[in-house]
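Why do we care about 3D structure at all? Because function follows from shape, and shape follows, mostly, from sequence. That is the central idea of this module. The next example makes it concrete: a single protein chain, its amino acid sequence, and then its structure expressed as tokens.
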Amino acid sequence: MHLTIGITDTEARYSNYPLWIKGNDSDIEIIQLTHANISELEKCDGIVLSGGIDTHPKFYKNERINYPLAPEEFNVVRDEFELNVFKFAQDKNIPVLAVCRGMQLVNIALGGDMIQDIEEIGKLDHRRHKEDGIHEITVVKDSLFYEIVGAEKCTINSAHHQALNTIANDLKVSAFSPDGIAEATEWKNKAGKPFLICVQFHPERLAQQHEGSSVAHNIREQFLKAVNQKALNSKH
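And the structure:
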């Protein structure tokens, strides 16, 4: 079945996302989504919220913009666009896979807030230095994420300096790092809601860095399965 997947544009290694999601599958069409072509959302069977620049703190009701490693200039246009994309996906029952910044944006959209810099509060460095960091995560057994990865411990990559602070009421943490950082979130109660999986790491790069990574493979497969189901339902 032909599937159309929208991936939000990012200034940070965008090409990895379509490479990972589409692979060699000629039935998958990728739309690079920006505020300029937001009308193409109507075509999408699934949406990937990509990683990238920090979300402006005003969207989580924080006035502090001069925190450690804050961007010189925020991209408020992108913030507003992606918040609208997520709302559209919820309204239209479209599966969402949210990666790194995308996971943070979903939490913000649903009323949560952010740790503005992990190291500032005494946590370990989760940043990328020339290449992604690598560490283990613990997966919560009673979760969709556990169903996807099939293990209580996984090794993932790491390239972020911010993390979720207050978790939105509609979400639950389904994986966390050794120092307690939320590494995956999902619906607390998924009944009647579209597929949603949010990860703080980068499966689109994990697939290249660790060939045969079951984590990256399984996330992609489960997302595409949900997208395919959405497309089938739309045709009936």
